[in-house]
Write a structure and sequence with these properties.
By secondary structure, this protein is mostly helical. It is built from eight helices and two strands; from the N terminus they run ααααβααβαα.
């Protein structure tokens, strides 16, 4: 991956932290008042966010084009995809950066579904979030079986 691409993803991760967590955390404010905050990172992140608001949108990088092409290829081959993320996951930022313009197009065909689960970490540590994740996957599989049982029945790895 290019340095610009990594920088963009890191910038989104920092922005998410500052706007969703640090801004509302009294300890972060106390750290800022005491002069112990990372002012360079804060300033850089805000600057990049403002630049993104006013700058024309860049063309997708070759990495993003490759990822988008891979998703299109899977969809064209009839593969059903379920993408599951925890709310605030850096992977979700990555998805938005790579497929932001195409995610709605890809999901409108019914072969791609994205699910964002709140109040969990990215590995679904708590048992109740594991159960919820299991239910999400189970409901997705059930809906596939109801929508296209012939496709599943004729699949090479389908139980006979």
């Amino acid at each position: 991956m290019s340095e610009e691409w990594n920088s963009s993803i890191t910038s989104h991760k920092h922005a998410r932290y500052y706007w969703r967590i640090a801004l509302f955390n009294p300890k972060s404010w106390l750290k800022a008042i005491k002069g112990k905050a990372d002012y360079w990172s804060i300033t850089r992140t805000i600057g990049l966010q403002l630049g993104n608001l006013f700058a024309p949108r860049k063309k997708m990088s070759s990495e993003a084009n490759h990822i988008a092409a891979d998703f299109h290829s899977l969809i064209e081959r009839g593969v059903y995809l379920l993408l599951v993320y925890s709310k605030g996951d850096a992977g979700l930022d990555y998805l938005n950066l790579t497929l932001s313009d195409e995610i709605h197009e890809l999901s409108s065909c019914g072969k791609l579904q994205a699910e964002i689960i709140s109040q969990t970490d990215h590995i679904f540590t708590l048992l109740n979030t594991q159960r919820y994740l299991f239910n999400v996957v189970q409901e997705w599989l059930t809906s596939l079986l109801q929508e296209s049982p012939k496709e599943v029945e004729n699949h090479p790895i389908s139980p006979r």
